[in-house]
Design brief:
Elements lengths: L4 E5 L5 E5 L2 E3 L12 H19 L2 H8 L3 H12 L1
Antiparallel strand pairs: 1-2, 2-3
Length: 81
């Protein structure tokens, strides 16, 4: 059995929701926090930078994270700018 909720965005930025033709009263809307493919790549880069800082050893962090030392250097520089 499939149930569908229709969510309509209003001009003022708020939302209204309907289920089976009846208006629902929504207290809060939360979007899924599942990372996209792009988000996963960015998170991997951030994790490698953090690991390098925690270990104090860029070569070891590169080996563990699967990123090259050069990419960690470049990503850290981009992050700082």
């Amino acid at each position: 059995m499939n149930h569908k909720v229709e969510i309509r965005k209003q001009l003022d930025g708020n939302f209204t929701a309907y289920f089976a033709g009846r208006k629902l009263y929504i207290a809060e809307i939360k979007e899924s926090c599942k990372l996209t493919k792009y988000g996963e790549e960015v998170q991997k880069k951030l994790d490698a930078i953090k690991l390098a800082e925690e270990l104090g050893n860029l070569s070891e962090a590169a080996r563990i994270s699967g990123c090259s030392r050069e990419s960690i250097y470049n990503n850290r520089r981009l992050l700082e700018t």
